[in-house]
Hints:
The complex is a heterodimer.
Chain A: H1 10-20, H2 32-40, H3 48-58, E1 62-64, H4 72-84, E2 91-94, H5 97-100, H6 104-117, H7 127-141, E3 146-149, H8 156-164, E4 169-171, H9 187-206, E5 212-214, H10 226-242, E6 247-253, H11 258-278, E7 284-290, H12 300-317, E8 321-323, H13 336-352, H14 362-385, H15 390-400, E9 418-421, E10 427-431, H16 439-456, H17 462-471
Parallel strand pairs in A: 1-8, 2-3, 3-4, 4-5, 5-6, 6-7, 7-8
Antiparallel strand pairs in A: 9-10
Chain B: E1 4-10, H1 17-28, E2 32-40, H2 42-52, E3 56-61, H3 66-70, H4 73-79, E4 86-91, H5 100-109, E5 114-116, H6 122-132
Parallel strand pairs in B: 1-2, 1-3, 3-4, 4-5
Binding site for L-glutamate (chain A): 66, 100, 149-150, 171, 177, 181
Protein name (chain A): Glutamate mutase epsilon subunit
Family (chain A): Belongs to the methylaspartate mutase GlmE subunit family.
Amino acid sequence: xxxxxxxxxxxxxxxxxxxxxxxxxxxxxxxxxxxxxxxxxxxxxxxxxxxxxxxxxxxxxxxxxxxxxxxxxxxxxxxxxxxxxxxxxxxxxxxxxxxxxxxxxxxxxxxxxxxxxxxxxxxxxxxxxxxxxxxxxxxxxxxxxxxxxxxxxxxxxxxxxxxxxxxxxxxxxxxxxxxxxxxxxxxxxxxxxxxxxxxxxxxxxxxxxxxxxxxxxxxxxxxxxxxxxxxxxxxxxxxxxxxxxxxxxxxxxxxxxxxxxxxxxxxxxxxxxxxxxxxxxxxxxxxxxxxxxxxxxxxxxxxxxxxxxxxxxxxxxxxxxxxxxxxxxxxxxxxxxxxxxxxxxxxxxxxxxxxxxxxxxxxxxxxxxxxxxxxxxxxxxxxxxxxxxxxxxxxxxxxxxxxxxxxxxxxxxxxxxxxxxxxxxxxxxxxxxxxxxxxxxxxxxxxxxxxxxxxxxxxxxxxxxxxxxxxxxxxxxxxxxxx
Amino acid sequence: xxxxxxxxxxxxxxxxxxxxxxxxxxxxxxxxxxxxxxxxxxxxxxxxxxxxxxxxxxxxxxxxxxxxxxxxxxxxxxxxxxxxxxxxxxxxxxxxxxxxxxxxxxxxxxxxxxxxxxxxxxxxxxxxxxxxxxx
Lengths: 483, 135
């Protein structure tokens, strides 16, 4: 199939669908009419689009954890605990890493071993193996909207199963679930496969069922410059809208400098809406802010400091929801108690800041302007190399390093750009690779990094980047020498 | 003579940041680093070790499935003729916060020479490796 940013025909979609539902035995239990009937009965308080809309209108920020374990009963226990004790507003089901690679046989091993060991041997919920039956049991046991959160390059069968089970949101995208999550899967393939997932959501939309789609904003979560992640988010938003998605949440991962983070969120929402309007898409847009995605302090009290800082930024930026970290972040997958503690710390901060926004200042205005200008440089070039086709342009742009995500594992990513913090902790770019910024913008980044180097009495260089990666884990935002 | 090590992230794990930092740290310390990147099978580690006549295999795992992914690696190394090759593992090796001494014991029983908890600085692994190789 030739990749184009064009809505799939019914014929195209159903031809692929027949094959997808045969990838694993549980696929045969997915029936579109039955699923539509089931989804139509989802009450408003368990619908992602409805709850997000209400939050946006009321100007509040919702808190959502990440969570998932191998077995259905244990997963239900975990989610109901996060709902009742953790006071979560929205629920996830984090999908395990084997499912993300479509290795359903290995999930079976993990399920078997989890039963034997009495603890989860998988790092998430293997939704495909559990099928519609298991996923509906989870949905029916909770009282909040449910979303699949994963990192799956080919999520076609997974998406079919979760939507048919009443889960009204799906995270992911053809770029954001490939470049940071895969090593050798081509972008043509993941963009096509995510067009399928988007078309599926679009199809339900046409049947009068609103489903939410959320491209994964933070990418590698490691010093990603705001304009780079915003450009990817806007591309994935436009690709989804073309397939008929009408309810979108675009995201951004906290970098750590308050002014830059608030600016990034405002720039993202405003610029995405401008592009949707320009291309004639009718999209209801909400935003998600991810608490710090990089290395965390081991000490749990210190981790709460990081969590609360992210919560404060999310509130002041006016994000519709915030994705919550836990005090166990530095050591791996949290217990349910630690997970609930993270949500409670988050909600306390959000509640204290309810209604407050970071007021406009000269610094904030300048930062918004800079991020928008950089994002436009990238997007203009993507459209140009694709001869006007955004899907083709995205693939070419990665080949040429016009789109380039720092620290990504994919061989389809150039990996030429190198970010580092300026003296105030804002993420700037040290080596630009082929990112198509103007000379003026590049000089501005350089001058800010030089200013930091001068304070630290060292040269601008790779050591700064390494120091910045470790800094938050050691308790600081900027990686100064001799921390 | 410079010693060769195989560096990689095992299983379906795509955590790339630490891998890039370890690559640089071990290279700077004078090792010949063969970095096979993220999402590597046991066979990829072993094949790389045979091809390059490596002195050690350094396995990272950040996503919690390390226990399943690493099981049997020592036996496969022996079958492949890699007798007594040094095996190190480090990262978030198991699902959840577990008692470290238990985790270490489990991995040592699997045949790993050294096992490192999360957040270990690269310098510690480098120092141990130099010791173990008699450098």
